[in-house]
Amino acid sequence: MSERKVVPTNCRFCGYQCGLLATVENGKVRKVQPDSSRYPHNAGIMRGCKRWPLISEVMEHPQRINYPLKRVGERGSGRWERISWEQALDEIAAKLAGLKEEFGPEVLATSIGGPHTTFWPLHRFLALFGSPNNMGIGQICWNPGIWANTLTYGWPVDMELDPEGTECAILWGVNPSQSDNSLFWHTVQEFKRRGKPLIVVDPRLTGTAQEAQLWLPVRPGTDAVLALGLLHVIVQEKLYAEEFVQNWCHGFERLCDHLIPYTPAYVEEVTGVKAEDVVKAARLYGKSTPACLYSGRGIDQLGLNSFPTHRALAILRAITGNLDVPGASHLSEMPDFIPELELELSEPYAATSPRSVSQEKLLLQSYQGYAKVREQTMKHKKRLPMRYLTSAHPHRVWKAMLTGEPYPIRSMIVMASNPLLTQADTQLVYRALKSLDLLVVLELFETPTSMLADYVLPSAGVLERPLLETKAGVANIAYGGDQAVGPYYERRPDYDFWRELGLRLGQEKAWPWQTYREALEYSLSPLGTTWDDFSGSGLYYQDNEYLKYEEPDGQGKPQGFATVSGKVEIYSELLREMGADPLPSPRALPQGNADFSLMLMSGARFQPYYASSYHQLEKLRRLHPEPIAEMSPVTGEKLGIEEGSLVDVETERGKARFRTRFVPMCDHVVSVEYGWWYPEMKASEPELGGIWLANANLLTSGDFDASDPLVGTWTYNGIPCRVAKV
Questions:
Q1: pLDDT tens-digit series, residues 556-585
Q2: In the 8-state DSSP scheme, what is residue 532?
Q3: Model confidence over 111-123: pLDDT tens digits?
Q4: Which of 58, 76, 96 corresponds to the end of one domain?
Q5: Domains identified in the chain, total number
Q6: Residue 180 is part of a domain; what is its CATH number?
Q7: If exposure means fewest CB atoms within 10 Å of the residue's CB, which of 3, 455, 495, 680 is most exposed?
Q8: Which residues contact 588 (CB under 8 A, 6 or more apart)?
Q9: Peptide linkage before 197 cis (omega within 30 of 0)
Q10: What is the mean pLDDT of the chain?
Q11: Of 548, 576, 604, which residue is a domain's last?
């Protein structure tokens, strides 16, 4: 007799992890539908999403990895044998132990990506193993803004776009019309319907920009100049919040002097944004209170100009009084539950003076930089997540694999990422991965990176494992829920891999939770709730509080901000102490030449994919069958290229092929789609799933010496390139 039940659970096809009801029969998912009881907003959000209806298909997809595999041919030959989990774990542990004995614990590096799993078990294992070389994409996604806002305010902020309360909104370098179908995109549309001023800053007229009252098509890489231009107008026209600036901002007079050159005319010359639009945007934002300034990943990929842009935007929020007020932003809080920082054992490990491959060269993105900032945040008893904000610079990791400098890295474990496709300079990544003594990949599907592995291990995916998302510990929020079914075949939660590997390497006392579910329940224990209770609601948060800097401290004085001065640091004393620019100072862009006269943007995403994921799904592939290169009609005409043509886009690093699409955007700029490969092609050398055909990272460089010296951000937007019709 069959057993049929309906289980509340969550999607995992993007970072928003919407609530679902899964109909389960005999341990198999038969149907999924939105869960409007736990998440009332789900129905509207999920109506336009093409991914979640394919969950049942993904769980039984013929290309899923279901059993542990061990390479038996040459690396990249595509020859594998099925082995047991026990054999795989035993052999991996033995290999790591031998490499550690020969070279030291730094011999191991890891690679992570987007929010497809929980990363603290990986970081916990690394801390116990003794390696500082966790690597991801933080330098070009999330980290720059977290660092800049913390230096300015003493802690990160969350933006609040409230259609009812917010009077003006600037969306800068973010495109929710394509990056997700979340509540945020619906909120943007509702804000537009209410007729309030919406300003969008983006080189392309994206779906989001089409909703705007004012579109500012900034040239790639010049965003910091535009931000300083807005500040120039606001200061000159006295549109700033005078009382807040006088009482709570440090260095305003220095800022005023710093802004003198950034006139609207100069800004137009550098950025391409019309001077009158610079003035109009500054007035709309400066005269509308409260106003929301929401920045996105586009700013994180400007190389040397990412950090100055984030700093300028942080100052823009502050001097207009749009800091820690409803409808604009709020200073976040640390979690009431156990944060990732403690689960990953970061603080005890940091006391051992770890040597990251990029440690000595980066002022902020390092253990020393973290310690300096921690001195300030602890004034409010807050601690930033450590492993993300001290992660090793990828370029230094690849070079250490190839050269042994500053020490050898001979092994890598890849989880929820695909560095051969998603990291800068694919050719360098390829040579580095090929050189390793041990490469282990935990995956749902075969990827170009897994094709080079020694071991490929099957990860439990959507609906097969519990979920707890916590924003890495920079906010007091948790959402998620239980799995709907046990993992199919021999898939396992990633937690199981790290725990079992740790047990084999002498870490027994540090892994008290036998299952991932037990570990999650422990992390929520300070709330006095069980995992079942949490799963029933799927959400924990506290209402936002505002004007927290005015709350009294222990001596009856306002607590202020967790900075050196106790105020918003327009002029950053900590940056000055580090020998960096205390005020945002844009850098000159790399200049093209006759051979490479166009400017490249390399990070565009398009629905229905999620970055490089789900190209195996035929229904999604039919919706978006080819990789796209966008340019303006004027650019296309000058190049003699028709819309829909196949073109080769080329930089000094390499060449990739795309199909052209003409859209309103900055002239002399080409925007190529990120994350493209061909799962239908041969899963071995030399094809490697078509990695060499339309991969945007064939065109990019993550060179460490050319990266931002504070965080290590490399340039993805603003690269000299050329385009030729095929």
A1: 899 999 999 999 999 999 999 999 999 999
A2: H
A3: 998 766 789 999 9
A4: 58
A5: 4
A6: 3.40.228.10
A7: 3
A8: none
A9: no
A10: 95
A11: 576
**One domain, residues 168 and 281:** yes
- Indicate if 183 and 220 belong to the same structural domain: yes
- What per-residue confidence (pLDDT) applies to 610? 84
Please check whether residue 419 is in contact with residue 449, taking contact to mean a CB–CB distance below 8 angstroms.
Answer: yes
25 with 132, same domain: the answer is: no
Q: Using one digit for the tens of pLDDT, what is the confidence trace for 351-393?
A: 999 999 987 789 999 999 999 999 999 999 999 999 999 999 9
Listed in sequence order, the DSSP H helices in 404-493 are: 419-422, 426-434
Whether residue 54 is found in the same domain as residue 72: no
Residue 349 domain flag: yes
| pLDDT, average across residues 321-348 | 97
| Rounded distance between C-alpha atoms, residue 216 and residue 232, angstroms | 17
Question: What value does the CA radius of gyration of the chain take, rounded to a whole number of Å?
Answer: 25
| 41 CB burial (10 A radius; 0-12, 13-18, 19+) | middle
Q: What angle do CA 92, 97, 101 make, to 5 degrees?
A: 150
Q: How confident is the model at residue 73 (pLDDT cuts 50, 70, 90)?
A: very high
Summarize pLDDT for 175-203 with one digit per residue, the tens: 988 876 567 888 999 999 999 999 999 99
From edge to edge, which strands make up the β-sheet containing 455-458? 80-82, 69-71, 455-458, 438-443, 411-415, 108-111, 134-135
Cα separation, 460 vs 491, in Å, equals 5
Full 3-state SS string of 107-119: HEEEECCCCCCCC
* Helices and strands (H, E) in the chain, number of each type: 25, 27
Domain match, 364 and 257 both = no
Task: Reduce the secondary structure of 704-720 to three states and give it as a string.
Answer: HHHCCCCCCCCECEEEE
Ramachandran assignment for 243, one of left (phi > 0), alpha (psi -120 to 50 degrees), beta (any other): alpha
Rounded distance between C-alpha atoms, residue 349 and residue 130, angstroms: 8
CATH number at residue 46: 3.30.200.210
Q: Are residues 638 and 570 in the same domain?
A: no
Helix 367-377 vs helix 143-153: angle between axes, to the nearest 10 degrees? 40
CA–CA separation, 145 and 293 (whole Å) = 13
CATH code of residue 409: 3.40.50.740
Tokens for 667, please give them.
């002239």
- Do residue 117 and residue 193 come from a single domain? no
**Among 525, 496, 526, which Cα is nearest to 511's?**
496
> Which three-class secondary structure state does DSSP give residue 285?
helix
CA-based torsion, 321, 326, 329, 332: positive or negative: positive
Domain span including residue 351 = 67-138+345-463+485-499
Contact by Cβ (8 Å): 215, 202:
yes
Mean pLDDT across 697-711? 96
> Which long-range contacts (C-beta less than 8 Å, at least 24 apart) are formed by 508-517?
510/124, 510/128, 510/345, 516/118, 516/121, 516/465, 516/466, 517/466, 517/482
Task: For 500-596, list the strands marked E by DSSP.
Answer: 539-541, 568-569
State the DSSP code for 392.
P
Has residue 129 been placed in a domain? yes
**679 belongs to a structural domain:** yes
pLDDT tens across 240-267, in order?
999 999 999 999 999 999 999 999 999 9
Contacts (Cβ under 8 Å, ≥6 apart) of 524 = 337, 338, 468, 478, 530, 531, 534, 540
Burial (0-12, 13-18, 19+ Cβ within 10 Å), 270: buried
Q: What angle do CA 120, 124, 129 make, to 5 degrees?
A: 145
Tell whether the model's pLDDT for residue 341 goes beyond 70.
yes
Residue 101 CB partners (closer than 8 Å, separation 6+): none
Task: Give the global pTM.
Answer: 0.97
Residues 214, 100: one domain? Answer: no
Q: Is residue 36 in a domain?
A: yes
Instruction: Check: CB of residue 231 under 8 Å from CB of residue 255.
Output: yes
Using a pLDDT cut of 70, give the percent of the chain over it.
Answer: 99
Which amino acid, 62?
Answer: P
